């Protein structure tokens, strides 16, 4: 009887699923019919030359202007699906794929980001107005000149920690060394290279500070550039509220069911990223607060894993921590695993990440949310290293190391497990290369 009921339930579920897909296709077709005129118009014009569409009309309440000439000259164009405005309903993150063309270099693929959903961008306008007038609505451009973004005028030499501390994750615990680096590498000015804030124009200074407050991702990409070996997408430029970054490749999720050898290589690279961002010659620890399959991509040619969403990253200056010596600064900090009913969730204390020299957060984040059997994403479980070959299962080391990296049973067990896991994944990668 139970089997008959389960079979009937299965048929109902499948029928309901097919019905939902059918209704979705019908609705999409109706939308296409209703927007036929707009559809043809979308293919005939380049909206990326429209000042209002890219948010150039909101400057200096914007992210920059370094790429405006390229946008206005029509060198940046949406790829086919990006031209269909009715699809923006599904594009909640406002991320678009486009082609960028140079006469001598040809065209290449780039990614355009508004750095927030429509609601988040509207909230930015409201926050600026509230800071300026105390009301949620105002003349945005005039409002900018009444905020603290404008009060840091040309007489101010340095951007100091007490001014911007807590504005965003990037500056949750800023050091002067970090802020000098951010200003010196600011790409939205022609006179980059100086850490003196007074060398920026008024509009450039306001754009820098607004970016720092509302979405510091462009500043992370500029301050820790891919050209110097940091595992981030390459920042290209901005126009208004549209930022351009280099297209990396398909998101990590696309490789969830890739051959085992490929997944091992990707897992090894992810652990290397965790190590690089935790321990490097610059003594900056970059802690990933948002770790999911969507936030990493893989290069199509070199197979290199890159972080493509850098909004939620805390940068802790280890040199400053050693200098100030806050309470327990030299005690190793172990992130605590906690059960969670949501996907890609992490448990952490920003203040502790900012006050300890030795922290295992990045290993914990990568192991729990991407690699181990505890990882859940889009209805799946098992992580990137799911279903290992029989000989790896029999060996038992991989499962043991992943478990210890996610839910350590020994004191400081995650630190040792992460080290051994990197070594073991390296061995597996070398073995697979030998057997080819």
Automatic annotation (TrEMBL):
Residues 210-408 form the FAM69 protein-kinase domain. It is found in: Secreted. It comes from the Eukaryota. Pfam families: PIP49_C. Keywords: Membrane, Secreted, Signal, Transmembrane, Transmembrane helix. Signal peptide: none annotated. The keyword Isomerase does not apply. The keyword Flavoprotein does not apply. Its main location: secreted. GO terms for cellular component: extracellular region. The chain crosses the membrane at residues 12-34. Belongs to the DIPK family. This is Deleted in autism protein 1 homolog. It comes from Sinocyclocheilus rhinocerous.
